[in-house]
Amino acid sequence: HSRPTNCIFFVRVLKENTYPAPVDPEDIMRCVQWMDEKTLNMLTPNLLAPHPNTYTFTKRLAEKLVTDQFPHLPIAIARPSIVTPAWKEPLPGWVDSLNGPIGLLVGGGKGVIRSMHCKGEYHSEVIPVDFAINGLMQIAWKIGVCKDKLKEIPVYNMTASAVKRVPWQEILDKGRKIVYENPFEMTIWYPDGNHTEF
């Protein structure tokens, strides 16, 4: 079936401005208060389109809720790219979850994940967690000291690609090297894994 072409999911460049939400978040919140789980599960695929999952859908609804409070509150929207382990703070490599690419690397290191569907030369749009947190603090400071009344809600796309562009193949190669030097306990299979385009 055809999907609308004006949705954020299909935008090639995510500009630093807000986009209209496909539905009113207040309506969604009212629906989940009275609908049973079976009905919600049936409606979810139609509500999500064109978003691939509830994560991206709810982020978009959250942006709408924040935007509705502007200019009554001193607010901004920050959109960090994929957050990865720390560069330096609190210590190099610090991580407290297995979300995103870290889960894939751990899965490969334990021998569970053998292949990832990806083009190795594609740029990994990631940001270390300490860069992201420091950026959020700078944004909060900037909004807090701003004396001029802003005409639009400030939106920041946060990524480290201007600092260092890293292709996925390099991430996989470095991850493999680290796990060979520092193997996990209780691996399922020889740690390896690579990407495939098929």
UniProtKB/TrEMBL annotation:
Catalyzed chemical reaction(s): a long-chain fatty acyl-CoA + 2 NADPH + 2 H(+) = a long-chain primary fatty alcohol + 2 NADP(+) + CoA
GO CC term, one of those recorded: peroxisome
Domain of life: Eukaryota
Coiled coil: none
UniProt-listed InterPro entries: FAR, FAR_NAD-bd, NAD(P)-bd_dom_sf
GO biological process entries: long-chain fatty-acyl-CoA metabolic process
An example molecular function term from Gene Ontology annotations: alcohol-forming long-chain fatty acyl-CoA reductase activity
Pfam families hit by this protein: NAD_binding_4 (PF07993)
Domain Thioester reductase (TE): residue ranges: 17-134
Enzyme Commission no: 1.2.1.84
Protein name: Fatty acyl-CoA reductase
Taxonomic classification: Eukaryota, Metazoa, Ecdysozoa, Arthropoda, Hexapoda
